[in-house]
Design goal:
Elements lengths: L18 H15 L12 E5 L2 E4 L5 E3 L8 H18 L1
Antiparallel strand pairs: 1-2, 2-3
Length: about 90
């Protein structure tokens, strides 16, 4: 294959869909296929199992996260809200 420096994993689409879209797709897919650190066992073995479902290949810990990354800014905000609500409920 020729030069795929810019589009990386989106190179498989050839000339289709336009360069901008392919570049955007490449960024997202790179993030989705990367390995992340497990919040339980700390090993870098968390992989995307399905959209929004992440699993640690070492300890088996499975959790809900973002569609393309295990943690999102919106998810963090939601966690904060959930924590403050549960604190209020128990007080
Ligand atoms: Zn783990």
């Amino acid at each position: 294959m020729g030069r795929t420096k810019k589009v990386g994993p989106a190179a498989r689409f050839g000339a289709r869909f336009g360069a901008t879209l392919r570049k955007r797709f490449a960024d997202i897919e790179r993030a989705a296929k990367a390995k992340y650190r497990c919040p339980i066992c700390e090993s870098k073995r968390v992989v995307r199992k399905a959209v929004g479902i992440w699993e640690c290949r070492k300890c088996g810990y499975t959790f809900a996260g973002g569609a393309y990354t295990p943690w999102t800014r919106l998810g963090e905000a939601a966690r904060r809200v959930a924590r403050s609500i549960s604190r209020r409920a128990s007080a």
